[in-house]
Amino acid sequence: MKLNPEFITHEMAGSHITVPVGSAAEKFRGIIKSNETAAFIIECLKSETTADAIVDKMLEVYEVERDVAAAGVEKVLAKLRELDALE
């Protein structure tokens, strides 16, 4: 899976946002403001990856239990799927 190319990301002053462009902006008129963890997950999605690979990367960066990381990844992925932000 990968982030839909019609969703662009931007980071400024510690804030991370994801914005739809093109036809995606016709379906979803808004922005996604992410916390640090969600932003990390979205950044991982800029290249083809899997949920397990994202969890593995999180475990390298954050001090968290695998099941907690996996639940967080699934929550973010579910929201992105709902918004058609994933390919």
Structural class: alpha+beta
Query: Which residues sit in consecutive blocks of at least 5 with pLDDT less than 50?
Result: none
Number of alpha- plus pi-helical segments: 4
Number of domains: 1
Proportion of strand residues: 15-25%
**Order of strands side by side in the largest beta sheet?**
1-2-3
Distance between the termini: 6 Å
Q: Per the principal axes of the C-alpha atoms, what is the gross shape?
A: globular
Rg, nearest Å: 13 Å
Biggest pleated-sheet summary: 3 strands, antiparallel
Beta strand count? 3
In helices, the fraction of residues equals: 40-55%
| Element order: H for helix, E for strand | EEHEHHH
Q: Mean pLDDT score, rounded?
A: 96
SSE diagram, text form:
Elements: E1 7-12, E2 15-20, H1 23-27, E3 32-34, H2 36-44, H3 51-61, H4 66-82
Antiparallel strand pairs: 1-2, 2-3
Can you tag this structure with a few keywords?
single chain, 87 residues, alpha+beta, three-stranded antiparallel beta sheet, 4 helices, 3 strands, 17% strand
